[in-house]
Each structure stands twice: as C-alpha cells, then as structure tokens.
Amino acid sequence: MKDQLEKIKQEALRQIEASDALEKLNDIRVAYLGKKGELTSVLKSMKDVAPEDRPKVGQMVNDARTMIEGKLEEAMSILQKKAREEQLKKEVIDVTLPAKRNKVGHTHPNTIALKEVERIFVGMGYEVIEGPEVEYDSYNFEKLNIPKNHPARDEQDTFYISDNIVLRSQTSPVQVRTMEKGKLPIRMLAPGRVFRSDEVDATHSPSFHQIEGLVIDKNITFADLKGTLAEFARELFGLETKVKFRPHHFPFTEPSAEMDVTCFKCGGKGCRFCKGSGWIEILGCGMVHPNVLTMSGIDPDEYSGFAFGVGLERIALLKYEIDDMRLLYENDIRFLKQF
Ligand SMILES: [Zn+2]
C-alpha cells in the first residue's frame, strides 16, 4: 500500500512538472484527486487494510493529497503569470508609430498684435487695465472734455443704451476711472473693444479695438511723450524707424498731435504701400488737457501727463500687410491660418 501511494505521488509530480498548459493541470487534478481519481480509489481499498493500520494509511493518503494539491497550485500560478506576461507583451504600445494629429487653432492676428504692443509697454513699466464696454455718457464724453452738443460727438457717434448710457466709443473712460481712484503716478495701457455707428467698409467697422495709454506724474513733458512713442515705434516696426509729429486737435489733450512712422516697406523713400509719401499715419497723442485732470480730481499745477491712442486693427493691418479690415472679422479659416 505504501509503495503504491509513493508511486502515485511520484507519477503525479512528474506529470505536473511536464505540464505546459492550465488545461493539462486540470486534467491531472481530476485524474488524481477527483471522485474517480487514483487517490480516491486507494481510500476505497481501505477495507482490505488491517484495522490497526487504517489511521496510518489514511494519514499517508491525506499527506499525498496535500502534497499533490500544493504542487498543482504552484504550477498553476506559474503558468498564469507566464500567460499574463505574454499578453502584456502582445498589447504593448509602440510609441514610435506616427501619432494622429489634432487640429489646434491659434491666436487671432488682432490678439498677436495686442500681445506685441502690451509686451513693449509692460517692458517700459506700464500696467494693463481694462474697463466696461457699456459706459456712462459722462465717462465716455463729459469727463474727457466733450460736453453735450460738442462737435467731437459727431465724429464719435456711438450706440445709446439710454440717454446716459452708451457703448463706449473709445477706451479713454478706463483712464478717467483710473485717475479718479487718485493713486499717482499712473502709467497705464487700456486695450479693448470700442463702438461707433459706422458703416462696414475696408477701413471701418461698428466695432473695433483701441489701445490707449496714459502717463501722469510730476514734470511730465512733451519730450517724455515723444521719447516713449519713438521707442514704441522702433520696437514695433524696426530699429531704423523714424517718427514725426503733426499738430492735430483732440478735445482731451492740449497740445495734440498725430504721429507718423517712416514706411517699414521702403524705409521712407516712397512706395505703393505708403502711397509714395514715405510715411504712415499711426496714432493720435497729446498732453492731457488740464480740464480733464481737474475733472478727475488731479491738480494740473502739480501734475501733468500725456496720452495716446492707437487702433489695434490698424497695427494688425500694417504689420501683416492686410488691405481690408473686414478680413479680420470674417473668421475665414483660410485667412486666419496664415498668421
Ligand atoms: Zn513706403
């Protein structure tokens, strides 16, 4: 009996070791440990064993059973691990395969131009400040020295929400709001959307963008204005760029001027781009009118300042040599892709 058990055990272990598949291990389990298995049949022949030897033989059968079960478990877990590893190898991601390309948009030419202007002025210590697009008439006109019935209101005719509330026609109200806070000195840039009741054509739109600047401090002179704007022009259009100032009139500045820059296409010799003049008109500027300072609670005998305003679209059109402003608003992908 003992020899028979030992033989069964050895044979089972040999078969387990030779198994290379989980199904085979299952077959072995059935063949040795199942209801009709070899070990079970040994137990069935127990009636032939002498009663005093039965506990000993029973113990031996149980030991053999435990041993075979243990080996089966061990072999199974090894095979399972191997199968998992092979599956992982098969499902590995090849990072060298070409990727699917996502179509990503990019910044609008207006925004590219705005970031460029902001970068230049922030580099000179300016702060970028924004304000409401729907504005009180008093901030948009009166506090900027444009009382009711002033002829300048015709040039800046805008959309009225009510008698006293308008869509702002310029970003200057942001300057007034900043001056009223009374924190001096001021060095600020006010970019944003503005509105005029204009018909749409190649150079006009009822909605466009302005970038205005304001500096208020003690002893600010026209020389500071010229130096600042000449530096701005050089940074934006190239180091060779020269500027000239032509006298002009704005209600909120005195004296006022318009600034031209030398044509960056021909360097000032005259070409089709600058219509032969060698100069390109770029912005309006001037020393802040004493009335405007007084209305915002700043003493014009102690403080002075300068202001300037430039159309964002004008900068974008010039910089990218676009000849029709409407292209900037139509959002035609074929156009926008070029920037
Ligand atoms: Zn030119």
UniProtKB/TrEMBL annotation:
GO terms for molecular function: ATP binding; catalytic activity, acting on a protein; magnesium ion binding; phenylalanine-tRNA ligase activity; transferase activity; tRNA binding. The keyword ATP-binding applies. It comes from the Bacteria. The lineage of its organism: Bacteria, Bacillati, Bacillota, Clostridia, Lachnospirales. Pfam families: Phe_tRNA-synt_N, tRNA-synt_2d. One of its GO terms (cellular component) is cytoplasm. This is Phenylalanine--tRNA ligase alpha subunit. Tetramer of two alpha and two beta subunits. One of its GO terms (biological process) is phenylalanyl-tRNA aminoacylation. SUPFAM superfamilies: Class II aaRS and biotin synthetases, tRNA-binding arm. It comes from Lacrimispora saccharolytica (strain ATCC 35040 / DSM 2544 / NRCC 2533 / WM1). CDD domains: PheRS_alpha_core. Residues 117-330 form the Aminoacyl-transfer RNA synthetases class-II family profile domain. InterPro entries: aa-tRNA-synth_II, aa-tRNA-synth_II/BPL/LPL, Phe-tRNA-synth_IIc_asu, Phe-tRNA_ligase_II_N, Phe_tRNA_ligase_alpha1_bac, Phenylalanyl-tRNA_Synthase, tRNA-bd_arm.
